[in-house]
Structure formats: structure tokens, C-alpha cells
Amino acid sequence: MILAFSTAQWILLIVFVIPVVILWGYAIISLASRPDLGIGAKLLWLLGIFLLPIIGSILYFMVRPAPQEQHRRAQARHAKHRH
Question: Any idea where the domains of the chain sit in the sequence?
Fold first, then answer.
């Protein structure tokens, strides 16, 4: 029952659990939409994000390139596969 939560449990839910779930979901969506990564790299990142949700998500956002760099890498990757 949702109403059976104590005040401390509500605070824990609001302050910790909800932000972590949002961070985790945003990392997965961001990863899935990256055109510069192949399926293998995406699967490895996904595994890291699932196994270590907080650390994996933060690490992903720290090491991912800026959107402009992602776009440049994606263009280079597609050009490489054309030849």
C-alpha cells in the first residue's frame, strides 16, 4: 500500500530514488539515440549502466562527447562504411 510509507521512506523516495531513476532513464535514452556508436559499444555501455546504475550513468555522461563531436564522428563512421 502506497499510504503505508513512513515519512522517512517518502523522503528517501523523493530525494534519492526518483532522481536516480530519471538519471538512469535519460542515460539509456541518450545512449540509444547516439549515431556515432556501433551496436557493440552501445551494448557495453548499456550493460555498465544496468549493472551500476548510478556510477554507470554518471560515467557515461562524463565521457560522452559533445553533440557536435557525436555528429562529426557519426559522419566519419558513415563515410568509412561507404568506401
Answer: 39-83
What is the C-alpha end-to-end distance of the chain, expressed in Å?
60
pLDDT of residue 76: 84
The pLDDT-based confidence of 13 (bands split at 50, 70, 90) is: confident
Grid cell at residue 16? 534519492
- How many residues appear in the chain? 83
* d(C-alpha 65, C-alpha 36), whole Å: 10
Burial 31-67 (b: 16+ CB within 10 A, else e): beebebbeeeeeeebbebbeeebeebbeebeeebeee
- Which positions ≥6 away from 59 have C-beta within 8 Å? 48
Q: What predicted TM-score, i.e. pTM, was given to this entire model?
A: 0.74
